[in-house]
Amino acid sequence: MVHPNETAQTRITVNGVTCDVPAGRSVAAALLAVGIRKLRESPRAGGPRGAFCMMGVCQECVVHIDGHLRQACMVPVMPGLSIKLGAGTPAVDTLGAGTLGAGAT
Amino acid sequence: MAAATCAALHGAGVVLLDENAVPGGQVYRAAVPGVSGAPGPDARVGDRLRAALLASGAEVRSGQRVWALGGGPLVAPGAAPAPYRVDACTDAATATIEARSLIVCAGAHERIVPFAGWTLPGVMGLAAATILLKSQAVLPGTRTVVAGIGPLLAAVAAGILAKGGRVVGVVDLASRTDWLRQLPTLAERPPLLARGAGWLARIVSAGLPLLSGHRIVRALGADVVDAVEVAPLTGGVTRRLDCDALCVGHGLVPAIEATLLYRAEHVFDRARGGWVPVLDGSQRSTVPLLYAAGDGAGVAGAAAAPLAGEIAALAALADLGLLGTADAEQAIAVRRGARSRPARVGAAMSAMMAPPGDLVDRIPPDCVVCRCEDVTRAEIETAVDVGARDLNQLKHFTRCGMGPCQGRMCGEAAAELLARRVGSREAVGTWTARVPLRPVPMAALLDRFDYADIPIPAPAPI
After folding, report:
1. Distances from the Cα of B165 to the Cαs of A32, B212, B415, in angstroms?
2. Number of independent structural domains in chain A
3. The total number of structural domains that make up chain B
4. For site-directed labelling of B59, which of B122, B237, B413, B439 has its Cα 20 to 30 A away?
């Protein structure tokens, strides 16, 4: 889901699992690029939530980044970043199937 | 950017506080080096504005979240106005700035009228998709539905196609006649019309379903969106589109928290996006030395915004005695003239982005309206049944608007639902503006202290 010519990657961990995400993006965009859309659950009804506005307004993409609650859409990925998604997020080890590049479905 | 540049060039001491890493807001967002590819026309305009800003002598503080405002008219009754006090923080620390005048360019955020399933991950705004495409070089999904109303619809669909992505349907609330009606106004700005024609050509040649006069009935999926159901506005067969992303948007709403906080007068103007500050012809609000410009002062489009910024700066310079009144008036008149056409076209585009009035009426009772607090339409209607008459009462009764987004995502829909019961948007009012203006980390606000530092007053005599 990234531009097909893109190759630079950054290594981060998500819920303890190492993964390579496109470099230079916001955490929200980088996670989206590797197929992670559910980021947390809503506090009252436990509904699945992900990044919605991409501009720091909706607060739906708030996740733990290096131990601090931060909006994923406002924080750029850096090597070694440790991200913890909300409770109930599907196991991150389903990553690696690869949705990058042209022609991926 | 333009306001800061203009004021600095005239010798004023200027500090620009910007939330993003690089100034430019949404439309003129800077390209991300090594990521965004060749800058598009908007990024190029933004680059020129940024270059002028850097050369102007204005002090630019980026990554600064303005969380509190004070001073100005917010003094004890009868006291003279104080300097404007602005508190801005990073994630680590907060700092206070005092200034004689304040120009607010807070921009606008997207309006999305709720529908069943709109909170599913993979559903995002059209402006959100634009940010992904223009500065993140990430596609919203591998099979994307683009929906809503207005020029952004075509821009996002064409943008996805241009980056090699797949659009499985364009679901446009507007009909083709709606578009044709706007053509004369759009034709006033040939570059825009050309861009629009280019988008349409790309969409048509891709041969994908282009559903005019259709709405999203619901987004479906368990943990993430995997399909949408759409139907004609006039009724008819529901159609299912399989997708892994839905980009939807219903216009822009000015961000007015700062001008509300200073108790400037506001007026409800649907054509300009809703509640806007009352401004004179030179961007002055009803509070002395407080000005507003750009979409945060009323949606008029990106092309009109820098000119409004310059007008505000010139008015401030004149009001502060840094520029002769006659010189300022002359410079303002020139810019006002230059601004009228882009503002007219911007206003037409804003009108094109307004959703049909009954979209709010179609919100199902069990649909979440307040995303932060999971408040449904049924709960809002019940609150009115038991006596809530304005937005703030609704907030107290239901917690709608009390969450981290501070009512930005739900405010429009909640206000429209209320207005249908109490009579008008004016009667419903606005959220009471309060500090902090943004969620801020406690660590940034608190300094190190010892409990021994806190003075304990002597107990009152029994």
Report:
1. 14, 21, 37
2. 1
3. 3
4. B439
CATH number where A19 lies: 3.10.20.30
pLDDT in the model for residue A98: 34
* Separation of alpha carbons A82 and B60, rounded Å: 30
Residue B191: pLDDT band with limits 50, 70, 90 = confident
Residue A61 in domain: yes
Angstrom distance (rounded) from CA B14 to CA B361: 46
Question: Measured between beta carbons, which residues in chain B are less than 8 angstroms from residue A39?
Answer: 121
B452 in a structural domain? no
Q: With an 8 Å Cβ cutoff, are B374 and A49 in contact?
A: no
Residue B449 lies inside a defined structural domain of this protein: no
Q: How many CB pairs (< 8 A) connect A and B?
A: 136
CA distance, residue B322 to nearest chain A CA (Å):
36
Q: Are residues B235 and B270 in the same domain?
A: no
Nearest to B409 among A3, A50, A58 (CB): A58
Looking at residue A96, what is its pLDDT? Answer: 35
Categorize the per-residue pLDDT at B116 as very low, low, confident or very high, splitting at 50, 70 and 90. Answer: very high
Quick: pLDDT tens for B227-236: 999 999 999 9
Residues B417/B260/A70/A73 CA torsion (nearest 10 deg): 70
Please determine, for residue A27, whether its predicted confidence score (pLDDT) is greater than 60. yes
Query: Chain B contacts of A38, Cβ < 8 Å?
Result: 121, 223-224
Per the listing, tokens 């910007």 go with B18
Instruction: Give tens-digit pLDDT for B293-342.
Output: 999 999 998 899 999 999 999 999 999 999 999 999 999 999 999 999 99
Task: Report which of residues B266 and B457 the model is more confident about.
Answer: B266
Domain span at residue B384?
363-428
Please, which residues bridge with residue B370 across strands?
Answer: B375
Is residue B453 assigned to a domain? Answer: no
Is B195 in the same domain as B275? no
Predicted structure pTM score: 0.90
Q: Which domain holds residue A42?
A: 9-85
ipTM of the complex: 0.89
Q: Is residue A105 assigned to a domain?
A: no
pLDDT at A103: 33
